[in-house]
Write a structure and sequence with these properties.
single chain, about 220 residues, alpha/beta, Rossmann fold, 5 helices, 7 strands, about 25% strand, binds S-adenosylmethionine
Amino acid sequence: MADLSDFQHPRFARMYVDASVVSDRRGAREHRIRLLAGLEGRVIEIGAGNGRNFAHYPKTVTEVVAVEPEATLRRFAATEAASAPVPVSVVAGHAEDLPGEPHAFDAAVVSLVLCSVPSLPAALAEIARVLKPGGHLRFYEHVRSPNPMIGLFEDAITPVWRRVAGGCRPNRDTLGAIGRAGFVVDEIERFGFSPQPLVPAFSHLIGRAHLHSPG
Ligand SMILES: C[S@@+](CC[C@H](N)C(=O)[O-])C[C@H]1O[C@@H](n2cnc3c(N)ncnc32)[C@H](O)[C@@H]1O
């Protein structure tokens, strides 16, 4: 099992703090608003980074537990939490070992995180564990392109990309993994988005899913 020391990327973290401001200006702010619209109750946000989502939680959310493994980003997130419109507590942790009893949360939020977790099935199983039966998953992720040539290009750059970008893999089948983890996808929006100047428009998803309850 990974521990927190596996997720420390201070150089990437300092770069991400500035880069996230740029990508929000280029459109990610609107993506975050769509991601979080209509959420209610207790929410766990996994891999909250420097807290760029916090300002956009609707007032119907009663509490956000924001889990972030990287120490530099966690400090920035704590500052953002102080001015959030809903109560946000920022805690150290990672997707493979989340805080909380089983069925503790109404909803889970991941944004630009599932590309970086060491094991997608392990992370999604742990998210399912802490959600109530029928609980909601909101996701905003970049994924492997449906265009075969671009997908092959993403496969080719992944080994180098993940080393310089905090473990991020541009070629993941995140939607397939969400389905295989027992979630039913209710809504999906697909679009190309270039988060930074000179970065190609990666294939992105904003989606809503819920945990399948047998019977
Ligand atoms: C590209 S940043 C996105 C940050 C934030 N969610 C956002 O929307 O701006 C990726 C984040 O995933 C976090 N991360 C990487 N591996 C993780 C894991 N196994 N569990 C939880 N978070 C993880 C990183 O520390 C970083 O904060």
